[in-house]
Amino acid sequence: MLRGLQASAAGSDRQLVWTFSLLEVARSPQALELLAGLLDGTREIPGLTIDRDRRWELVVALARAGAPSARERIARELEQDPTDTGRKQAIAAEASLPSAAIKGLWRERFAAEPGPDALPDAQLREAMQTYHRLGQEELSEAAVDWYFETLPRFAATRDEDLVDSFSGSMFPALCDERIVRRVDALLAAGTPLPPAAQKNLRVARQEEQRCLRARRLAAGGD
């Protein structure tokens, strides 16, 4: 990804494609050093404009990878951009941090009863979308039981649109037969769930099965 970005023509669409791809997977010290430098202004890629949106994309990517001083970068960027969009981006970055404590805090926030002290639905959605991240499978594993225990209660007390977001974004996709069985058990129990949530569960189940078949084929199975 890094080589593709560096080889792209300045200001081209291809350059943007490689940029977005790198932001999704950056983990090596070399890649993280580049992203931090772009954010701090000490590095530059000809033709790549680091505007406000791009700055937040860099912050989220650094947070997801657990880069040094990631939390400080989130706070500093939010101070510079205290808009509603900035707050949502800061939440997205925090929820993506590879920290068991941070993930646990967000699970508590998701499961909290609606009320004046609860976060707005829009902010919860931002956190849901970045909670599960590539390379953080161990942290997602810790949320499996919590997800299947929380979803029925969540569906009974929250708006259907938010239940839709929760059931899809918070699904622990781990390419694991246990997850398939948990979905089957939940659906077989007849737990009241909105149609959109039921659909999300069935689609996620199919993706788990597809992943499992791919692994068997890769391992030489039938």
Explained architecture:
It is a single chain. The protein has helices at residues 2-7, 13-25, 29-40, 52-64, 70-80, 84-95, 100-111, 121-131, 137-141, 144-157, 160-169, 177-188, 195-218. By secondary structure, the protein is mainly α. Helix 4 packs antiparallel against helix 5 (70-80), helix 6 runs parallel beside helix 8 (121-131) and helix 12 runs antiparallel to helix 13 (195-218). The longest helix has 24 residues, at 195-218. It is globular and about 55 Å long. It starts with a helix and ends with a helix. The mean pLDDT is 95.
Q: Summed up, what is this model?
A:
This protein is mainly alpha-helical and 222 residues long. It has helices at 2-7, 13-25, 29-40, 52-64, 70-80, 84-95, 100-111, 121-131, 137-141, 144-157, 160-169, 177-188, 195-218. Helix 4 (52-64) packs antiparallel against helix 5, helix 8 (121-131) packs parallel to helix 11 (160-169) and helix 12 (177-188) packs antiparallel against helix 13 (195-218).
Structural class: mainly alpha
DSSP helical segment count: 13
Beta-strand residue percentage: under 5%
Mean pLDDT, as a whole number?
95
Helix content: 55-70%
| Straight-line N-to-C gap | 33 Å
- Uncertain runs with pLDDT below 50, 5 residues or more? none
Task: Provide the gyration radius in Å.
Answer: 19 Å
